[in-house]
Amino acid sequence: MTKRAPDVSTSPPRRRSRYILAPLVLIAANVVLFALFFVWPAVIGLVYSFTNYTGVGAFQFVGLDNYHSLFGDSTFYDALTRTLLYTVLFVPLNFALSLLIANMLVSRHAKGASVARVVFFIPWLLSPIVVGVLWRWLFGENFGLVNYVIEKLSGPAVHWQSNADLSLLVVVMAASWAWTGFSMLLFIAAIKNVPVSYYEAASLDGAGPWRQFFSITLPSIAPTSFIVILLNTINAMKEYPLFVSLNNGGPGTSNNLLVQYIYQTGFQRGQIGYASAASFVLMLILMAVAVIQLIVNRRVENR
Amino acid sequence: MTTTDMPRRADAAPGRAVSRKRLPGARTGGLRRAVSATTLLWILACLYGLPVLWFILSSLKPAGDLFSYPLSLIPHHPTLSGYLTAWRSANFSQYFVNTTIVCVITTILTVGASCSTGYALAKYDNRWLKAFFLCILATTMLPSEVMLAPEFLVVRNLGLYNSFGGIILPAVLTATGCFMFRQFFLTIPDELVEAARIDGARELSIFLRIMVPLSRPIMLTLAILSFQWRWNDYIWPLLMLNDPNKFTVQIGIQSIVGAQNINWSVLLGASVISMIPLILVFLVFQRYVMGADINAGLKD
């Protein structure tokens, strides 16, 4: 935007809107798609969330009944708390890992960084389904490599599949592993943009590497950290395929997350109205997360 | 070219890092630090690489050896039988073709739509264009997973249920793509557009004949990203497709996982086959992904 500023000020104001047809033609395709696949579903979703629609036939408006029963539904609460727990575990772990790796890859001390970067990036290419299969293979209770190694070291076999919390932990590890590549790329770009002179000045003043990291790197890449946390939070809140292939929301239904809950109520039990209400709760949470992070980010940047 | 520094060459990294000269006196500590940093980096790299390595090596074992103790990292009798069975069984090759078709068409449409939208957002100044830009950014808050049921009904009402169109069209608009192209076109000087206008070029031909060729690197970056997203899509194709002949690879793999008794030999083979196209694309076009300024980041 800053690039345009002088140009606009020197030209007569009517220039601004002289071109109407050309930009309209250029954005036409995306406007149509936006209207069809975002506005329309959002509107009918909101409407259906106040009805008892089942996907076919007639429906009645039931007011806030769906929302009422949603908040009385223990399955929904379990899914919601499990989703939040997963997010709270996954986002910091992924943040720490990808920041650590990005720092090491940019560091001039580490050798072979360009090869290592490919190794860290490859998991991001795999689909959530394949990542789930891969970790299931790794953490199988009777056949997995991890339990095999633990037993070799004369430890007891760990119940990675039948213990709900351990099962969630495996998913958290799998997701952090798979998503490191992307967050890492964002961090690498940000760290490279920090002026080298800052570090030179700091080491003249005798600041060690840790001090330099916390006083220079971390504040300088704050906007990127914000984006990474926001994206990862959104991704974690809507996670579904990874759970399906890793433990199918199990053992039992203990690791059913919100999207799986929406999918099951909407498509397996045909309660479209009820599922739409659950969708809107999820959407409100996502928006709240975005707004909170925006406010925090503003405050940090203005400091 | 006066255009841009993005995508940055991936191999520009070491050069930049070397230029960070340190002060004398840190030299003895420098070697120690180099050793420890390199060691830590490669320990982590091994931890990250090991799952994939174990997975691929396991897929080369014959079905009978998969669970035989003691487990061995290297397959004693390497075989491709798992791959062959997977490829022949359960329409897997058909799934592969389907997924390729969907990915290629979606990617072409996404690149085209994002390029023209990004150009309009960057080079024209209108209030409604700004409003539309905000709308596009808002779509990141509203991923299709959040609106599964209503979006399903819309696509069904459009008559696209159980067709590739139902998977392709909702996926074309991506905020990341529009944002990437907008950022790119903002770095192109307005004088270029002005000069073309003075020479009498029409608006759309400026776009098609000057801007589109300039944006080729961004196109490639977005194409790779888009291909990855669509190749790995699971939930939307699962909802949209009813006919097993139209299933995509991810659905195929999940159907093996969902079986009562998992056939691990076939599952490993199928999974590894499904990984191959993306890894090939990535290795060939590595620098376009690694160097890309995807700060736009707002993943699909």
Automatic annotation (TrEMBL), chain A:
SUPFAM superfamilies: MetI-like. Residues 80-293 form the ABC transmembrane type-1 domain. Keywords: Cell membrane, Membrane, Transmembrane, Transmembrane helix, Transport. The keyword Phosphoprotein does not apply. Its main location: membrane. The chain crosses the membrane at residues 20-43, 84-106, 118-138, 166-191, 212-234, 272-296. It is found in: Cell membrane. It is a multi-pass membrane protein. It holds the Pfam family BPD_transp_1. Belongs to the binding-protein-dependent transport system permease family. PANTHER family: ABC TRANSPORTER PERMEASE PROTEIN (PTHR30193), DIACETYLCHITOBIOSE UPTAKE SYSTEM PERMEASE PROTEIN NGCF (PTHR30193:SF41). This is Sugar ABC transporter permease.
UniProtKB/TrEMBL annotation, chain B:
The keyword Membrane applies. It is a multi-pass membrane protein. It is found in: Cell membrane. The keyword tRNA processing does not apply. It holds the Pfam family BPD_transp_1. PROSITE patterns: ABC_TM1. Gene3D superfamilies: MetI-like. InterPro entries: MetI-like, MetI-like_sf. The chain crosses the membrane at residues 34-57, 95-121, 128-148, 160-185, 206-229, 264-285. It comes from the Bacteria. Residues 96-285 form the ABC transmembrane type-1 domain. Keywords: Cell membrane, Membrane, Transmembrane, Transmembrane helix, Transport. Belongs to the binding-protein-dependent transport system permease family. PANTHER family: ABC TRANSPORTER PERMEASE PROTEIN MG189-RELATED-RELATED, LACTOSE TRANSPORT SYSTEM PERMEASE PROTEIN LACG. This is Carbohydrate ABC transporter permease.
